[in-house]
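To fix ideas, we close by showing one paired sequence and structure record:
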Amino acid sequence: MATYNRIGATYAHTRRPDPRIAARIHQALGDATTVINVGAGTGSYEPSETVWAVEPSTVMIAQRPAGSAPALQASAEAIPLADGSADAMMALLTVHHWADLEAGIAELRRIARHRIVILTFDPAVNRRFWLLDEYLPEAAAIGDTRAVALDRLVTLLGGARIETVPVPHDCTDGFLAAFWRRPQAYLDPHVRAGISLFARISDDVIQPGLARLNDDLAAGRWHHRHAELLHLETLDTGYRLLITDL
């Protein structure tokens, strides 16, 4: 919660839902008529069927738009709802922040009647993203300590099908790899303020890599090295949907 109380002030502006990713999430939820969003933040990607949003940060809850689902200030590990309270539970880009993953997944399984949908990332693929691999390897190593392996999640869920979620080149949701074709965005402190990796890691670790990126952009080295990216519409940077039927 402390991380999101720090970065949450601008979250509603820098982390606007991308409609193409929203379509994938809503498709994964299937015909659920009641949904609970865990680690809900400001409410991005919540379908109209959402009946509760579970979120520990008051800063994030305060930014939820009028008319959105009511919010419970609670952690994923201890959700104050009865067993089988909703058709589906969803948890989007949040499991790597949970203090007790086993307890959190157990809560999802306890409360969901039919389906669990988790949007997360495959650390093995995400770690190869050019920003982390070439410019921020030290920060990535620190981030690795919080990353959750997909096979661990699948085991805790009791099985899941895994779908790749490619990131559009003009993605409107400013998560870590959203700017894979817009490298200059990572030099903007307003953009970085909405990305939890930057919030968790000190400037002493981040700034040398960003300085190298700035120099490479100015000299044209980044564009030469990554010319193939400039013609792609989407890129697989490791984001995955895990879907479990109960």
